[in-house]
Amino acid sequence: MNKENDHSGNKKEKIVSIKGVYKSFDDNDVLNGVDLDLYKEENIVVLGKSGSGKSVLIKIIIGLMKPDKGTVEVLGKEVHKLNKKELIGLRLKIGFLFQHNALYDSMTVRENLEFPLKRNKRDLTQEKIDEAVDDVLDAVGLTDTADQYPSELSGGQEKRIAIARTIILKPELVLYDEPTAGLDPITSVEINQLIKEVKERYKTSSVIITHDLTCAKTTGDKIFMLVDGKFIRHGDFEEVFETDDERIKGFYDYNFIQ
Fold first, then answer.
1. Which residues, listed in sequence order, are joined to residue 234 by a DSSP beta bridge?
2. Which of the residues 43, 95, 139, 179 has an alpha carbon 20 to 30 A from that of 55?
3. Which CATH architecture has domain 13-90+215-258?
4. d(Cα 230, Cα 222) in Å, to the nearest integer?
5. pLDDT tens across 188-203, in order?
6. How far apart are CA 229 and CA 246, in angstroms?
7. Domain coordinates of the chain in residue numbers?
8. 143-183 pLDDT, tens per residue?
């Protein structure tokens, strides 16, 4: 696993390393040479407008798309050199929060949470499965919803359960795709806080894809600003937005952050 010294001289474990990645569709250049390093127990936010290539980057990280050029290493493995079996094994270490939650309507909350365990951890006893379900329900603050169906949940509760399902396999890397999309401002604040709590409780590393500045400011240790297929600026929130670059100022003004 790649490591690099931090400011105190300690080794930091590199979870994701993206070097010189390009991706085009016909004449549309979506990614134009992006570089990104994510370290252990760090949350990185990739910030950009809709259609800027954020979701394409996520798909490349998990091997659903192949870059035209460049390399992507995840947990020490070069993703696009893995065979099918190796890729499946790698994905078991990655949690993915879908924008639209993707819960099974015909299953209760408990059954939704049990599903990835029964599918991928066939040696687990029912007692261990119950413990894992209870743990993630406690983590998202919804221990009383186990027997409810997704249709009985509010939008915020449904998002929390989707996060619980994302972390039930104890992933090392979590990918969040627009985690606050469609949520009201108060619920969005709660989900942003939960993303931070997940990192602290489960020691995860995360890439958070969003165009929501409040989400970026709350959850991100580092922000990467994606414009025209390139990261034009990165750093903490203040470093990224203390600039005269009109492309970034316009994005800030668009979000109406106070």
1. 224
2. 139
3. 3-Layer(aba) Sandwich (3.40)
4. 16
5. 999 999 999 999 999 9
6. 17
7. 13-90+215-258
8. 999 999 999 999 999 999 999 999 999 999 999 999 998 89
